[in-house]
Amino acid sequence: MNESTIFLPWLVIRQDDNGNRYRVGRYATRAEAQRVADGLDATGHKQLYWVERIGQHAQSADGTRN
Predict the structure, then answer these.
(1) Mapping DSSP to helix (H, G, I), strand (E, B) and coil, where does residue 27 land?
(2) Over the chain, what is the mean pLDDT?
(3) What is the pLDDT of residues 29-60, one digit of tens each?
(4) Nearest to 34 by CA among 51, 16, 54, 55
């Protein structure tokens, strides 16, 4: 399998204090993405981190749709 055929459907999203959202990374599994989001969230900064699947509507950190 080469890089052009790898599918990474899970995103970790960060929202800063001003409401700006950024993609932190893409991952093959939800579990992997969630581990990254949980690790970043544990740093104690005010930013929010959550996991989304590509093609889903944005969700807030508590899982409710925006």
Answers:
(1) strand
(2) 84
(3) 999 999 999 999 888 777 899 999 998 655 54
(4) 51
pTM summary value: 0.72
Contact by Cβ (8 Å): 57, 46: no
Torsion-angle region of 43 (φ positive above 0: left; ψ -120 to 50: alpha; else: beta): alpha
Tokens of 24: 């932190």
Tokens of 2: 């080469």
Closest CA to 35 of 45, 25, 44: 25
Instruction: Write the single-letter amino acid at 31.
Output: A
> What pLDDT does 66 receive?
42
Buried b (16+ CB within 10 A) or exposed e, 15-50: beeeeeeeebeebeeeebbbebbeebbeeeeeebbb
